[in-house]
Hints:
Layout (H helix, E strand, L loop, with lengths): L1 H34 L5 E2 L4 E4 L2 E4 L7 E7 L4 H17 L4 E7 L4 H10 L5 E4 L4 H5 L7 E5 L4 E7 L6 H13 L1
Parallel strand pairs: 4-5, 5-6
Antiparallel strand pairs: 1-8, 2-3, 4-7, 7-8
Amino acid sequence: MHTTFINEQRNRLMRNSNAIASIRNLTLLLLCLCISPPIAAKAPSFELPSDTGTFALEQYRNQVVYVDFWASWCIPCRYSFPWLNEMHARYGEDGFKIIAINLDKDKAKAQRFLKLIPANFEIAYDPKGTVADLYNLKVMPTSYLIDQQGILIHKHKGFKPSDGDPMEARIKKILDK
């Protein structure tokens, strides 16, 4: 009788453990789906004022587009801009377009940043964060790589110099398709 009781308790505990593990796995899956924007989905379209007039993502269909969200106070952005200038110089003639979207509420702060660290690529302004919300932005800087068909294929949070080579390899791979 004592052995039967122990076996019943062990079986009940195992059933509960399996149920808890299943719930935990489902919760993690749901969190991942909610936190990460869908990759391999159509990139949200947008139009913003830029230094050259108006920038519309749709006008760069059939090109690889690198969308980079930045702000004047962002320290990693200071490292990413020289790399972005280099990528623009290397691949701009091959159908590669960079659009850096500034999120400062005060455009003068962005202009001061750009005097210190010039950009040889398109700068657009999203002071209300409307486009940042479309892209579910959480970290500064965050970049999105969009292929020639307008499909969002890669998201990268933050920037450090060691991020450059792997990102360049992704860009080259997409351009070669």
